[in-house]
Amino acid sequence: ARDIARIALQIASEICIYTNDNVFLETLGEERT
Question: Where are the domains positioned within the chain?
Fold first, then answer.
């Protein structure tokens, strides 16, 4: 899910003038394997 969010924000930063490419992802809770 983290990779999908990062890619989605990268695409949005290329399309939208109000979104930049400075991304900070914060993960909550434990990561499942």
Answer: 1-25
